[in-house]
Amino acid sequence: MQPKLDTLHAPWLRIPAWGAAMACLTAAERVFPLIDRLASARTKEYCRATLDEVWASSAGPPPRADAIASQIHGIDGLPESSEDDSHKAAYYAMRAIGLVWHAVRSQAPEAAHQEWRGALSGALSLAADLEVVAQRVATKKPGLRESEIAFQGQILRLIEQEPGLSTHLVTSLRVLGEGMATEFQSAVDDLCRLKGW
Q1: What class, spelled out in words, does domain 5-195 have in CATH?
Q2: Which of 38, 33, 97 is nearest to 71 (CA)?
C-alpha cells in the first residue's frame, strides 16, 4: 500500500534543509517533459539552464540571496509563468515551471521545507490531473498520482540513507528524476492527443 499525501508531509520535517531542497530539485526534473513539450523555446532554454545551474551548485554552499532572487525574477518573467487558462498548453507548462520555481527558492535553507511542501502538493496535483487525461484517452496506464507518491517515497529513502549531501547523492537523485520523467512524458503525450496540441 502506498503512503497517503498526509503521511508524506511529516517525514520531510525531520530531514535537513539540504534534503528538502534536493527533493524539490528532483521533482522539478521529473516534470520537465511538460516544459519541454508545451513551453516556448525561451522558457525551455531558461528552465533547463536554471535546473542545470542548481544541480551543479547543489553540493556546495547555498547561493547568495541575490542570486536566488535573480533566478526567481527570470522565472517570473517567462511568458507561461502567469497562464491561468486551463484550455491552453501554456497552463500545463506553467504548473511544471512552478516546480522549477520551488526548486530555486528551496536553495535558501530557511525556505527549503516550505518550498518542498509546495512542490509536493504541486506535483501530486499535476499528476492527478494528468491521470484523468490518461483515463479519458483510454491508455489504462497505472495511476500517475500513485506513482508520484511512490516517487516521493523513493526520494525520501535515498536522502535518509545518506549522512550528508554528497556528489554521489546529487547524481543519484538527478538520475532518478530524469529516469522517472518518462511517466510524465507519456502523460503529456496523452494530454496533447486529447487537446489536439
Answers
A1: mainly alpha
A2: 97
